[in-house]
Amino acid sequence: MEQSFYDQVFELVRLIPKGRVSSYGAIARSLGAGGSARMVGYAMSNAGLAHPKVPAHRVVNSSGLLTGRFHFSDPNDMERLLAEEGVRVKNDKVVDFKKLMWDPLQEL
DNA sequence: GGATTGACGTGTC
DNA sequence: AGACACGCCAATC
């Protein structure tokens, strides 16, 4: 079975190290999707239904804003999980996002 | 199979 | 600096 774009996104998101965050666009580019950043977020909708839990809370938009927190079981979970991993969230934004930005193309 | 959608990104006003 | 608009691209209806 050919894995859909979603599956590729799931795997890549799962590779995000703890205490680190990534952006939809970066993930999309890592998959060679380029401008399909929206698909990444779209895939995340299934992330909650994915078998192994996908750390979707580590994925934010290019601004480091927790855009998808409302899609979680509980919106507070997202920033809470991030805080647990050492990621400071201020006003729904990841602090020092640029420093915590984990780009597979760069890190790998 | 065309139309709609969507957890984005970048540019412009 | 904040708000608005358009573009991308794949999955779903």
Write up what this structure looks like.
This protein has one domain (5-95): Arc Repressor Mutant, subunit A (Orthogonal Bundle). The protein has 6 helices and 4 strands. The chain has helices at 5-14, 24-30, 37-47, 75-84, 97-100, 104-107; strands at 22-23, 59-60, 89-90, 93-94. The protein has a two-stranded parallel ribbon with strand order 1-2. It is globular, with a radius of gyration of 13 Å. It binds a DNA duplex (13 and 13 nucleotides) through helix 2, helix 3 and strand 2.
Number of strands: 4
Q: What is the succession of H and E elements?
A: HEHHEHEEHH
SS summary, helix count: 6
The biggest beta sheet, please? 2 strands, parallel
Strand arrangement within the widest β-sheet reads: 1-2
List its traits:
single chain, 108 residues, mainly alpha, Arc Repressor Mutant, subunit A, two-stranded parallel sheet, two-stranded antiparallel sheet, 4 strands, 43% helix, DNA-binding
What's the structural blueprint in terms of helices and strands?
Blueprint: H1 5-14, E1 22-23, H2 24-30, H3 37-47, E2 59-60, H4 75-84, E3 89-90, E4 93-94, H5 97-100, H6 104-107
Parallel strand pairs: 1-2
Antiparallel strand pairs: 3-4
Helix pairs in contact: 1-3, 2-3
The structure holds a DNA duplex (13 and 13 nucleotides).
